[in-house]
Design goal:
Elements: H1 4-11, H2 22-30, E1 35-38, H3 45-55, E2 59-63, H4 67-79, E3 84-87, H5 93-104, E4 110-113, H6 115-118, H7 121-128, E5 132-137, H8 152-155, H9 159-163, E6 169-173, H10 178-187, E7 194-197, E8 205-211, H11 216-227, E9 233-236, H12 240-252, E10 256-260, H13 266-278, E11 282-286, E12 301-304, H14 311-318, E13 328-334, H15 336-348, H16 353-370, H17 376-383, H18 396-399, E14 404-406, H19 408-420, H20 427-434, H21 440-444, H22 461-473, E15 477-479, E16 487-489, H23 494-497, E17 504-506, H24 531-551, H25 555-558, H26 561-570, H27 575-578, H28 586-606
Parallel strand pairs: 1-6, 1-7, 2-4, 2-5, 3-4, 5-6, 8-13, 9-11, 9-12, 10-11, 12-13
Antiparallel strand pairs: 14-17, 15-16
Helix pairs in contact: 1-3, 2-3, 15-16, 16-22, 19-20, 20-22, 24-26, 24-28
Length: about 600
């Protein structure tokens, strides 16, 4: 007997085989068991709940925090012939009522709702009267009070376990460190869930970071013109004012650049988002208000003109580039002013002292990551307890090694001071000990009597903070962010303390330029260099854009670039051949095969 999940993967979604852990996750959910899934952006998380929702009787309820995500995914599913709908505040009462009736009659495979609507007594009563296949909790890291994207309403979702104990649940995220994973399972009562971690690596993304010395906009312009002219991208800024100024400046340089932040009306934000999704070569300049749930696969770059507030935020924001698996860039310039502004924002927030302490240490970790001398991908993955056993060759530090200095003795002093103070204190306290600052706490703790007291006079406090940031980023120290921010030694520091290892750290100097990738090592962006093939590529894109415009959809919902590339390479002439392309399921075959086959036929008749 055929595997129903594999049959749906082939016939509906048009993919020949499952990737990585997808099949294990789907099998577990179909069997009625819970799962927690950590999978990188572009890794195929959505299929992990979409296929079980189609296989199991009833409707799969997908809890999603953003309207954009719902609308994009439902539009894509409808193109595949899947019975999908969403309920949100953009709909009138009559539309919402029709969808609710479809739910009750069992006419939907998937229904997307926001957590706020899900938790209303009226909607829970509606679910009581409906057959539910599963609950999928997307962007599950939003449940973590220690995370970068906390949403209080997510904590209430534990009611699903109490109210519907027989309905399987799956929580999914691309961004979760160790404490966040634990909190997801605890807060959502997923005690019996199996944890699936597919790794965090996005090997197609090149990470590039440099310090900003008042030339950030000019460097951004050179970067876009040189590497990403007429390609889609996102530029992140900390403030609304900087977003507006940067968008206007890029427009003046000839780019289609649109601002996006909470200070704009909902109508303008929606217009700009729609243009970004549906037009080619649009650049969105945004605060972090933009991005979650954006499913555009062909974003070729994400640029930061300011330092993100945490490594989690950086990973999630840069992860919006290259969802299609093709080469993409994560480019950033940061400066001391960013750190000052972020700390001011943290100080002004209404969060309690514990949360402010967590935010502070996450910012320090982000700054340490920016100051790294070694492979950025190795450090980024290590932060999420993932491992890469060799330098990636696709980040600025691998491509253009930075100026360093022998910090072995200094690092030994830092680590020894952490050890002598019993791993009970934070960075500033340890630095005060190293610099012989007789503060009341140090005197009360008798740490002015330690052998390490005053041994760090060769550096000032700012330089010591850079050393500690880099030691944390390199894994020699960890920070107990759930406690009081105290520094803790790791096993990795033992060889360094024993003098068996030499350590080189980054010089805090002005960089000559942002490192540039060796493009010859990257796969080509275009499908082929042959002129006739490039002509076909453009003809297929034009056909896709025309169809998308007629349907009011983003072009990638018709077919991804990868599918168009296969058309260029394989040149199908029959429906049977066309059906073998990746991403061509039964419904898309019926709707679009003849149109695209005609484009290919005409191209080679006139070539």
């Amino acid at each position: 007997m055929d595997d129903p999940a594999l049959h749906i993967l082939n016939s509906v979604f048009g993919y020949p085989a499952f990737r990585d852990q997808q099949q294990r996750i789907i099998t577990r959910l179909i069997a009625g068991h819970d799962a927690v899934v950590l999978m990188p952006t572009g890794g195929g998380k959505s299929l992990c709940y979409q296929i079980p929702a189609i296989v199991r009787p009833g409707t799969g309820i997908v809890i999603s925090p953003l309207i954009a995500l719902m609308q994009n995914q439902v539009a894509a599913l409808l193109q595949l012939g899947v019975r999908a709908a969403f309920l949100n505040s953009t709909q009138d009462a009559a539309t919402a009522q029709t969808i609710e009736q479809q739910l009750q009659r069992g006419e939907l495979d998937l229904l997307y709702v926001a957590p706020e609507r899900l938790m209303t007594p009226r909607f829970l009563t509606l679910l009581d009267r409906s057959a539910i296949a599963l609950f999928a909790i997307d962007e599950a890291h939003c449940v973590s009070q220690w995370g970068h994207d906390f949403r209080p309403e997510y904590i209430q979702l534990s009611v699903l376990h109490q109210r519907y104990p027989q309905v399987p649940r799956i929580a999914l995220t691309a961004t979760a460190d160790g404490p966040t994973r634990q909190e997801i399972m605890k807060q959502l009562a997923l005690h019996n869930a199996e944890l699936f971690v597919s790794g965090f690596d996005r090997p197609n993304i090149c990470y590039r970071i440099a310090q900003n010395h008042d030339k950030a906009r000019e460097a951004l312009l050179r970067f876009i013109q040189t590497d990403h002219d007429n390609e889609a991208g996102i530029v992140y800024c900390l403030s609304r004012n900087k977003v507006d100024q940067t968008a206007t400046w890029l427009q003046g340089q000839g780019f289609t650049a649109l601002p996006y932040h909470a200070g704009l009306s909902a109508e303008v934000r929606q217009q700009h988002q729609d243009r970004f999704l549906k037009e080619d070569g649009v650049i969105i300049v945004a605060t972090i208000a933009f991005g979650m749930g954006i499913d555009k696969p062909d974003v070729r770059f994400v640029a930061h003109l300011n330092l993100p507030k945490s490594i989690e935020a950086y990973y999630q924001e840069t992860g919006r580039a290259g969802r299609d698996g093709r080469p993409a860039d994560a480019w950033m310039m940061y400066g001391l002013q960013d750190v000052i502004l972020l700390k001011q924002m943290m100080a002004a927030s209404e969060a309690d002292a514990a949360h402010k302490r967590v935010e502070h240490h996450k910012l320090e970790s982000m700054l340490g990551f920016a100051e790294l001398t070694g492979c950025r991908r190795q450090a980024l993955l290590a932060y999420f307890s993932d491992h890469l056993d060799h330098p990636c060759g696709n980040c600025d530090n691998c491509l253009s090694p930075v100026a360093t200095w022998d910090a072995t003795v200094v690092a030994q002093k830092a680590l020894s001071c952490v050890h002598r103070t019993e791993q009970r204190f934070g960075v500033n306290y340890v630095i005060d000990v190293l610099l012989k600052h007789a503060t009341p706490r140090i005197v009360d703790n008798r740490h002015d009597q330690l052998s390490v007291y005053g041994i760090g006079a060769e550096l000032d406090a700012s330089q010591w903070r850079s050393v500690f940031r880099q030691l944390i980023a390199r894994g020699f120290l960890t920070v107990d962010i759930q406690g009081h921010g105290n520094l803790c030694l790791t096993e990795q520091c033992r060889p360094l303390l024993r003098g068996e290892q030499t350590l080189w750290l980054r010089h805090d100097t002005k960089p000559a330029a942002v490192a540039r990738k060796d493009r010859t090592a990257q796969p080509a962006i275009k499908p082929a260099a042959k002129p006739e093939t490039n002509t076909l590529w453009e003809a297929l894109r034009a056909c896709r854009k025309r169809l998308a415009s007629e349907l009011g959809l983003p072009p990638y919902v018709i077919f991804h670039d990868a599918t168009l590339m296969q058309m260029c390479e394989q040149r199908p002439t029959t429906r049977a051949h066309f059906a073998q392309l990746s991403g061509v399921g039964k419904t898309k075959l019926e709707r679009y095969a003849d149109v695209f086959l005609e484009v290919i036929k005409q191209h080679y008749e006139t070539a």
